[in-house]
Amino acid sequence: MFYLEPEELNKQMMLAKQGDAKAAMRVAEHYSLGENDMKSSIPWLTIAAETGDIVAMQNIASSLSALGGKENCQAALGWFERAKREKSPEEIKEYGIDDSIARLKIDFDGCVKRSR
Fold first, then answer.
1. pTM of the model
2. 12 and 47 in one domain?
3. How far apart (Å, rounded) are the C-alpha atoms in residues 48 and 32?
């Protein structure tokens, strides 16, 4: 379901590079869910997150924290905090941003040790 055929993948990549957040999310899902390659999904999640897409912000933060390592965990916290700064209180509550920030801060050392 998440796997994209090469022609469609190329089309979505081109759209994503032009700033299309939905296309960037499709490419990210292709890699993370269709090919089980989380690292390759990060650049595409970044494109979508930079447009202000809260789901992309949450997904990139979660992916980075799952990858572990100090740099990834700091970046994950940065994405959660950006979502908190930029989104409405309703969105912050709906997507559990405050809880995600709190969990990551509590388990920051564990996050760092998960380095893959």
1. 0.89
2. yes
3. 14
Provide the residue range defining the domain that includes 116: 54-116
Q: Is residue 23 located within the same domain as residue 63?
A: no
Domain count for the chain:
2
Residues 41 and 87 in one domain: no
Q: Which of 22, 37, 31 is nearest to 4 (CA)?
A: 31
- Per residue in 45-77, pLDDT (tens digit) is 999 999 999 999 999 999 999 999 999 999 999
98 touches 84 (CB < 8 A)? yes
Domain identity same for 61 and 39? no
Q: Tokens 């999904």 identify what position?
A: 41
Q: Which residues make Cβ contacts (< 8 Å) with residue 3, sequence separation at least 6? A: 30, 34, 35
List all residues 6 or more positions away from 106 whose beta carbon is below 8 Å from its beta carbon: none
